[in-house]
Design brief:
The complex is a heterotrimer of chains A (350), B (264) and C (271). Chain A has 350 residues and is α+β, with helices and mostly antiparallel strands. Chain A folds into 2 domains: 3-233, 3-Layer(aba) Sandwich (Rossmann fold); 237-349, Beta Barrel (OB fold (Dihydrolipoamide Acetyltransferase, E2P)). In chain A, 26% of the residues lie in helices and 37% in strands. Chain A has a 6-stranded mixed beta sheet with strand order 7-8-9-3-10-11, with helices on both faces. In chain A, strands 2-1-4-5-6 form a 5-stranded antiparallel beta sheet, with helices on one face. In chain A, β12 and β13 (257-272) form a beta hairpin. The longest helix of chain A is centred in the middle third of the chain and has 17 residues, at 168-184. Chain B has 264 residues and is of the alpha/beta class. Chain B starts with a helix and ends in a 5-residue tail after the last helix. Chain B has helices spanning 2-21, 53-66, 79-87, 100-109, 157-169, 182-190, 201-207, 237-248, 250-259; strands at residues 42-49, 70-77, 94-96, 117-122, 124-129, 149-152, 177-179, 196-200, 211-214, 224-230. Chain B is built from 9 helices and 10 strands. Chain B is elongated, with a radius of gyration of 20 Å. Chain B has 2 domains: 41-121 and 225-258, Periplasmic binding protein-like II (D-Maltodextrin-Binding Protein, domain 2); 124-221, Periplasmic binding protein-like II (D-Maltodextrin-Binding Protein, domain 2, 3-Layer(aba) Sandwich). Chain C has 13 helices and no strands. In chain C, α8 (169-176) packs across α9. The chains are: A alpha+beta (350), B alpha/beta (264), C mainly alpha (271). Chains in contact: A-C, B-C.
């Protein structure tokens, strides 16, 4: 019962999307990428709101889209969609919103409302059945949208940036809730997001796209350990470099050299987390480690750490404690030395 | 400069003349050709019953030819509407009505103080579209429900005359529409929208080929007298008087007779 | 010139004189004639006139015809508005201009046009008469047709504007929930444009009620059949101005009642 989609979509603007997706029942696949990468286009194509230019969309033996002969429009696909702005019908109560899909597919009012009520209970909004969408908070609206999408028992659940409209604290809470619901949901799920945390927490499998093409796929943990592009690396908060290895020395493509732990040959990626970087006012001598001069460009405050961007050969991200920041009196423009232990680096073939 | 002086002089003369003869039927200067009546100039506004449209338009042109410098403008409508307008203060110089009752509406309020003079008479005729598609044979057909019939509304002279005629003939008409003036009725006939209507003889003549006329006996018993008079507060009283005189002169009468009106 | 700031409060916003004076003149221009009707009303004979059969007849006819005309406008006009707003036609701009023509056309001209097409010898009317025996002029149905002709553009323009402003993404959402296009239109699109729809309907009804030129030209004048209130007023003016004022007052009160009952809901945009 696999969902199989080979999408080629050419838009009038000249943008082209090429994507190959396979989702198993019960699996959550996250489509991750920067804005404009084509994620929402892919979601709309799977939803049947947009026909593909070439390729195939198939759920088992049901063909949903195969140009030029077959195109099943959205209203005939067994899908449920949670839109970025939720798009709850403002003139209907929460209950009637959730019941809408059931009524549209032929259920009578009593049955539809009973099922809708059950779903509202599931998402914890029993008391808000009679509330209009305008009177709901962001988190509540999101949950109603989810209930509405799931009420019709769809085979495919599509989530378009489901948490983007929420503030940070609500997001954490709702994300955890969503993870529970997705775990219980037996169908196929496609989650579209630009937030790596969503992907990491909710997805079983990631597909990362940039500029209309896939750049990396795999389970979240693997991608975090071995990012293939700057975007991915930045996404998961890693320093990533490309270079040529000759033994344990890697000559970096953009300048500079790094010493890695395991010898290798040929083109390689070298990665290490910002937490592995130490900053010193002067060049320290000592155990085999990488060390080079850098200049601070920006300093960002994160939850409990300070992330420092440093210019140098190569440029690097470093995470330090507030104490270190104060002690070294770091400001943009300060010149320092960055060091990384070879053992902290990971190298893998490019 | 000289023009306004001339107008002033004329006004003085006219005022003098009117003051001298107010209340008489005949104008001070003898009507007709060959007289030494001075020509008038300026705008003259004439409110006239719709049935006078073609005849008066012709007379207006003739008058302008005889009085260079004069310009005659007409307002043709149902006599009751015109009477109303004059009573409300419309700037008319002359009023020619299709029935004495509507003239009375105006003299009652004092908007006209001269004694009106009857200058023509008109009688009704049955009008059908060319070719008589409804196969109308006489007045009795006006009671038929399946024919489309147009009549003037009763407050308009031709409507009042029609009512009289039906009363005399003992027929209850079944009209489909009651129009505001006789020309509107005529239009319905010439467009073929109605099978029969009662209009004036003069209207049938004016409509030419599009309309066929059918005289009937009772028409002679409900003839309309058309009175004409200059208005008390006429903006151009000299012009008003001159126009009234012209209408009643031989020249005017000739045009009216040709249109189908009867002598008073 | 400076305006002193009140202590501890908001500065009272005064309407600048340059705006206030024309505004007041405009207000007087619109309101004083209506007040004139009230002032000159023949209060003594009012009740007699009011309950005379002629007035009752004209009133009932007016209400019935205006409502029927509005119903026709809704049935035909809403789909037309949808076509103009969402249809993918070439030459939509031209279509829209044509639809707007009755708005700017003098009503009498409209009546003449209807006569030439739907009259007994009209382009279409002649076949209606010959094949079905249907003749529209001088009938109540003719009144309804004339009123619908002049009033429909109001509805179409209003609804088209509302449809253009409606968010098409809600229709996407409805589709993903399994709603057919017709169901989506009925239960999602129409409710979302309700204010614009109501506004258009009210304007349409009011315009139909007040129509005179096209009605008298196309449908003629006959009490009980085609004499609507505006016609009755016009006729009464020639013979009995008192009656004309009474009839005018009835129409005025009716219009105000309709507008008050809607209580601004139809002119305010949804927040």
């Amino acid at each position: 019962m696999t969902l199989h989609a080979e999408l080629t979509i050419a838009r009038d603007s000249g943008f082209q999307l090429e994507l190959d997706l396979r989702i198993e029942p019960g699996q959550v696949l996250a489509l991750l990428g920067p804005n404009g990468a084509g994620k929402t286009t892919a979601l709309r194509a799977l939803a049947g709101l947009l026909p593909i230019s070439a390729g195939l969309v198939r759920l088992d033996e049901h063909i949903w889209d195969r140009p030029p002969e077959v195109f099943v429009p959205a209203e005939h696909r067994p899908i449920g969609v949670v839109f970025q702005d939720y798009l709850l019908f403002n003139h209907l109560t929460a209950l009637d919103n959730v019941a809408f899909g059931l009524r549209a597919r032929g259920a009578d009012r009593t049955t539809a409302r009973a099922t809708a009520r059950r779903w509202l209970d599931q998402v914890g909004l029993t008391d808000h059945a009679g509330t209009r969408p305008r009177a709901l908070s962001g988190g509540q609206a999101q949950r109603v949208a989810l209930a509405r999408a799931l009420a019709t028992d769809p085979a495919l659940l599509l989530l378009d940036e489901p948490l983007a409209a929420l503030d940070a604290s609500t997001r954490i809470h709702i994300r955890a809730d969503l993870a529970h619901h997705l775990a219980d949901y037996p169908g196929h799920t496609l989650l579209v997001t630009h937030d790596p945390l969503d992907a990491m927490v909710l997805a079983d499998h990631l597909v990362i796209i940039e500029d209309g093409a896939v750049v990396q796929t795999g389970p979240p943990a693997q991608i975090a350990r071995q990012p293939r592009t700057d975007y991915v690396a930045h996404l998961v908060g890693l320093n990533l470099y490309r270079g040529t290895a000759d033994g344990t020395t890697v000559r970096l493509r953009d300048g500079g050299t790094l010493t890695i732990a395991e010898p290798g040959t040929g083109p390689v990626h070298v990665a290490f987390p910002p937490s592995a970087v130490s900053l010193h006012p002067e060049n320290p001598a000592g155990s085999p480690r990488n060390s080079w001069p850098v200049t601070i460009t920006t300093i960002e405050q994160h939850a409990h750490t300070i992330r420092v961007r440093l210019d140098g050969t190569p440029s690097v991200l470093a995470d330090i404690t507030p104490a270190t920041l104060a002690e070294l009196r770091l400001t943009p423009g300060t010149r320092l030395w960055a060091t990384v232990k070879a053992t902290e680096t990971t190298a893998y073939p490019a | 400069m000289s023009r306004s002086f001339r107008a002033l002089a004329l006004a003085a003369v006219a005022a003098g003349t009117l003051a001298g003869c107010g209340g008489t039927d005949t104008p001070a200067a003898p009507a007709g050709s060959g007289s030494t009546a001075p020509t008038v100039s300026g705008d003259i506004t004439v409110f006239a019953a719709a049935s006078l449209t073609e005849a008066f338009t012709r007379i207006g042109k003739d008058f302008e030819a005889a009085n260079p410098g004069a310009k005659v403008t007409f307002n043709f409508a149902g006599s009751s509407a015109l009477a109303q307008q004059i009573n409300q203060g419309a700037p008319a110089d002359v009023f020619a009505s299709a029935a004495p009752t509507n003239m009375k509406q105006v003299t009652d309020t004092g908007a006209i103080t001269d004694t009106p003079a009857v200058f023509v008479r008109n009688k009704l005729e049955i009008a059908t579209p060319a070719g008589n598609p409804g196969k109308v044979t006489g007045l009795a057909d006006f009671a038929k429900q399946d024919l489309k019939i147009a009549l003037c509304a009763e407050q308009v002279p031709c409507g009042a005359a029609a009512r009289k005629v039906f009363q005399i003939a003992g027929i209850t008409p079944a009209p489909d529409t009651l129009e505001q003036d006789v020309k509107a009725v005529l239009t319905k006939v010439s467009l073929g929208e109605v099978d029969a209507a009662l209009v004036y003889r003069t209207d049938v003549k004016a409509a030419g080929d599009k309309v066929a006329g059918m005289p009937f006996a009772e028409a002679d018993q409900a003839v309309n007298d058309y009175p004409i008079a200059a208005c008390a507060k006429a903006p151009n009283s000299a012009g008003a008087k001159a126009f009234v005189d012209y209408v009643r002169s031989d020249k005017g009468t000739a045009v009216l007779t040709q249109a189908g009106f009867a002598a008073p | 010139m400076t305006t002193a700031v009140r202590r501890g409060g908001r500065r009272r916003r005064r309407v600048p004189l340059v705006l206030a004076v024309p505004a007041l003149v405009g207000l007087a221009f619109l309101v004083v004639p209506l007040a004139g009707l009230l002032i000159r009303a023949p209060w003594g004979t009012l009740t007699d006139q009011l309950f005379s059969p002629a007035v009752g007849q004209a009133l009932v006819l007016s209400l019935v015809c205006a409502s029927l005309a509005t119903a026709i406008c809704l049935v035909l006009g809403v789909p037309l508005a949808w076509l103009l707003a969402r249809g993918d036609l070439p030459g939509r701009g031209v279509l829209r201009a044509l639809v707007t023509v009755p708005l700017v056309l003098p009503p009498v001209v409209g009546g003449v046009a209807l006569l030439l097409v739907l009259g007994r010898r009209g382009i279409i009317g002649q076949y209606l008469d010959a094949w079905f025996g249907i003749s529209l002029p001088f009938t109540t149905a003719g009144v309804v047709v004339a009123e619908a002709f002049v009033a429909m553009p109001f509805l179409v323009i209003s609804v088209e504007g509302a449809l253009r402003g409606a968010d098409p993404r809600y229709e996407d959402a409805a589709a993903t929930l399994g709603a057919s296009r017709w169901l989506t239109f009925r239960r999602v699109t129409l409710p979302s444009i309700a204010p614009g729809l109501v506004a258009g309907t009210v304007l349409c009804w009011a315009r139909a009620l007040g129509e005179f030129g096209a009605t008298i030209t196309f449908a003629g004048n006959f009490p009980g059949r085609t004499t609507t209130m505006p016609l009755a007023v016009y006729l009464a003016l020639e013979t009995d101005p008192g009656a004309a004022i009474v009839l005018s007052l009835v129409l005025l009160v009716l219009s105000i009642a309709v507008l008050v009952s809607l209580r601004d809901r139809w002119i305010s945009t949804p927040s």
